[in-house]
Specification:
The structure is a homodimer. By secondary structure, chain A is α+β, with helices and mostly antiparallel strands. Chain A contains eight helices and 14 strands. In chain A, strands 9-11-8-12-10-13-14 form a seven-stranded mixed beta sheet. In chain A, helix 2 packs parallel to helix 3. Chains A and B meet through helix 1, strand 1, strand 2, strand 5 and helix 3 of A and helix 1, strand 1, strand 2, strand 5 and helix 3 of B.
């Protein structure tokens, strides 16, 4: 007979909501569990991956679990198209084909499913991308929350654009194509009935046309990223880390709609960590910054594009700082990630 | 003031479990709701779709919701790889790349997630396919059942193989690569604690090597299909419909393991409608049937391949009949689909 120590059990050895929120916990889960299992982990995590043997093709996948299914400005159907089209666009690609896979909870009214699918189909048509294949699964009541949608997209890269989260360089200008915080605060407000949802709407939209506008700038476009889960703070932190650079942005330059600012104040949120679904961050060579800004503004979805900061000539690699309204500097941390579950 | 009739409400106007079971209800949902919304619906529904502009590339997507997560012979991780690798293989393609998207219920033990991912990674490695991109979402307790996995695969077609569910021709031989019913009865038994799970194991395995073995037969291979949800009955009905032919199979020729037959007897199931994850149906030109059978048998996973029937020279298009053990003939219907939810 032998005595054995029981295997130590950590209270936190289960998956937490924050593991899916796009912040530090998500990164930990990926780095410790997911990537080692699938032989990943070399190189930066991009929004879309290159297809082996076809360097012009990129692939991106996303499962959408947003709650509620319908919110001002969109629904899970349009969001599922935009999210994947945008992940492809952030690798400089136009969308070639989408797959759509549904997980439906038994009892979902067919009228709601029909409305979601109509919206999804319209969004795909507007983005000029065919839905080429799909799958439908149904699970019992209580085994899912109404409807989840996975979309996977294949895109073809514009020959001259090869943006990557690892390509930011000292001196780069940091551009933002539109205001932040709309999607996250709209969904949160609609879900919790906070009342702000009458004043704001999600910014969900396809951004491949914004990216097309940047094509003439070619290799001067170093990084493209859509600040979804974890917001602008997460996107900038990932870029600073993957490029080993220090990034500074001006608080006064970041456009935050008044209703978003009010909602964030009330809830105690930093608008920089709130998810967006219709704006992008571009890091471009300083000399090309004005042209890039003009290119973004030439497209309706980039009409309010602004320059929000720069890559510092030197500074601690991976650090993101905010030059605040009162002239101080504060560190913009990678959000831990528990604030806003099921926002996309 | 006007009086309006209330919109008629049908009791069945919600999604039912059977809508996801791969039978007639699934087909109805696809034809009435999904395909019209996404501009699909022309041509047969294949296991994988051609990528626009790249005729050698095919795409397939599947969401896996199997319950329980672990079962004799496999788990949701290996199943998620095999299912998509096999859908690509059924279009005559070898797998180039996989995406993996997780929807995790808060509270799932990390040890289980780790085990599933290790199994998924090993299955991908065994099939020689890299996982190139992924996504992780977490939903609250009760908003999902432990873990769902979507895999989407991109495959490259063997130049000489262009199988399609629409290409069956009168006189074709119908081949089956192995016994039927193992996966469905194993998962059902494990879930319900029926006790059969000690005698049987899922047949989940990748089948791209079986398909490679058929490459020398080229255009004589008319149809390849893996009889998953809805079993052999659904696969044969889909082929008969899409090719407008009549198919007849011999009951005595269809291999049903004893334990599967016992379990089916007890539960009142027809083994022909039970899901498989490791055998395929091939329709080949009669003159090539012996060579095709030899090719299938040359690979370990096809060692027990048999000829089970033929496409009748004439007969009602879309009809599948079974020549029974007692010499009678009965129609093999498309299963309605409510029998075995969450089998994959």
């Amino acid at each position: 007979m032998t005595f054995e120590c029981p295997t130590p059990v950590h209270e936190d050895e289960v998956v937490l909501l924050g593991h899916g929120a796009g912040g530090r916990l998500t990164a930990e889960l990926l780095e410790r569990l997911v990537l080692p299992a699938v032989d990943g982990g070399s190189g930066p995590l991009e929004d879309a991956a290159l297809l082996p043997g076809y360097r012009e093709l990129v692939v991106s996948t996303d499962s959408f679990v947003v709650s509620p299914l319908f919110f001002p400005g969109g629904d899970i159907g349009s969001l599922a198209v935009h999210g994947t089209v945008n992940d492809l666009a952030m690798r400089g690609a136009r969308p070639l084909a989408l797959s759509v896979s549904l997980i439906i909870e038994e009892g979902l009214p067919l009228s709601e499913l029909r409305a979601v699918l109509a919206s999804l189909g319209k969004a795909a048509q507007d983005a000029g991308v065919p839905v080429v294949t799909g799958d439908t699964k149904v699970v019992g009541r209580g085994a899912a929350d109404r409807l989840f949608i996975n979309t996977t997209g294949i895109g073809q890269r514009h020959g001259s654009l090869h943006p990557s989260a690892a390509l930011a360089r000292p001196g780069d200008a940091v551009l933002l194509s539109g205001p932040v915080g709309l999607h996250g605060m709209t969904v949160l407000s609609a879900r919790e009935g906070l009342g702000f949802e009458s004043d704001i709407a999600s910014d969900t939209r396809p951004m491949h046309r914004l990216v097309s506008a940047l094509v003439p700038l070619g290799a001067d476009v170093h990084v493209l990223r859509d600040p979804t889960r974890g917001g602008l703070a997460a996107a900038l932190n990932e870029i600073a880390r993957d490029s080993s650079v220090a990034v500074e942005i001006d608080e006064s330059a970041v456009p935050v709609p008044t209703a978003v600012a009010s909602a964030c104040d009330l809830m105690g949120f930093d608008p920089l960590v709130v998810a967006n679904e219709g704006c992008l961050v571009a890091f471009v060579a300083a000399a090309a910054a004005d042209d890039a800004l003009a290119a973004l503004r030439s497209v309706p979805e980039g009409a309010s594009a602004v320059r929000i900061g720069e890559v510092l000539p030197e500074g601690e690699p991976g650090r993101v700082t905010l030059h605040t309204l009162v002239g101080a500097r504060r560190i913009v941390d990678m959000p831990l990630g528990e604030l806003l579950p099921r926002i996309c």
